[in-house]
Amino acid sequence: MDARMNDENVKKNSQPLSLRVPEPSGRPGDAPDFSHLLMDPAGVVERPEVGSTPYEMRDLAFRLIRVLDDEGNAVGPWNPRLDPETLRRGLKAMILTRAFDDRMHRAHRQGKTSFYMKCTGEEAIAVAQGMLLSREDMGFPTYRQQGLLIARGYPLVEMMNQIYSNAADPIKGRQLPIMYSAKDYGFFTISGNLGTQVPQAVGWAMASAYKGDDKIAISWIGDGATAEGDFHNALTFASVYRAPVILNVVNNQWAISSFQGIAGGLETTFASKAIGYGLPALRVDGNDFLAVWAATQWAEERARSNQGATVIELFTYRGAPHSTSDDPSRYRPGDEHEKWPLGDPLDRLRQHLTVIGEWDDERHATALREAVEQVRAAGKESEAIGTLGQSRPSVKTMFEEVYATEDWRLIEQRREVGV
What we know:
Helix 2 (about 85-110) crosses helix 10 (about 360-385) and helix 3 packs across helix 8 (about 290-305). The chain has helices at about 1-15, 85-110, 125-130, 145-150, 155-165, 195-210, 230-240, 290-305, 345-355, 360-385, 410-415, and strands at about 140, 215-220, 245-250, 255, 260, 280-285, 310-315. The mean pLDDT is about 95. By secondary structure, it is an alpha/beta fold. The protein is built from 11 helices and 7 strands. Strands 1-2-3-7-6 form a 5-stranded parallel β-sheet, sandwiched between helices. A two-stranded antiparallel sheet has the order 4-5. The termini are far apart.
């Protein structure tokens, strides 16, 4: 009797459980609201020694490394003090990347390709890191790092041939458009299975160290894909074996239509996920070319001196749709990108170069025009070979580069096809 009465009292006094589903600060029709963001002023975050322990520098996982202030000045201890020519090359590479994106997006609308993904607003990340690291270091990118190839001078025609899946496609029709592969340019084949590139990068770096080589690896993953088990498995191996790898989390606020809070971005920063694995973490303004360069340089030095991996959260905003299959106006305020408090990476580097007297409106107009002309010329050359459905790799390539030695089954299949 007493037990039953006790159970009834517990039921009366207990509260019903509720499930929280995170919601973004704005939906279509709302005014953009970024008041919740954690951002330091430019130049105030300290730069630790490369040999600092993760514990000593753990607060950097919650700060924001910035170099360029609102007036375009480079300030603070993270200023990499790049020479003007390097800065100009960086700006021109970002301009060219955006021009390439614009043409390829239009090509999709014209039915010339089945798919495309722009990196608008994120150009500083891939361009700065692509310029800084060697081609012999291996990059394991996602689908928004086309700036790596463009900054390193990879032929635009080859990129277009892959996007059009034409007869000159360097991957011979075996990949979706924009999933490039260029070993000679330090660009590992993109995988559509999100998260897989991070353990691959760690494994590659471990192999490099095991062989006594001097090459490091670098990977990129979106904020949403950090919820994949592959990301956490990779952090474990990177920490235990001190793999010489840089692990980038590109927090562009949206994983298709899911905002970054669904992957835990409201609870803590993505950089702070490194702390539990005993890894150093840096949180960086991803729209600041100089800050991206400086943080990557710090992580590179750490990796090359056998001090292991670094996790870098690159804080940015995906300005364009997730892909040509996406309509962001259905899930976020239409003008949210324009109101992003960290601005546009091209505008900010242009402003800095102008402030130091190494750029002006005339040179900027010339750079824009030359980028468009370069992309247009590459487009004409690639489209002369063929766009989607107009030409395609030979059927015989289906049997090549799969097995080292053909067995009787492949020989018979080739015979049946007539190649």
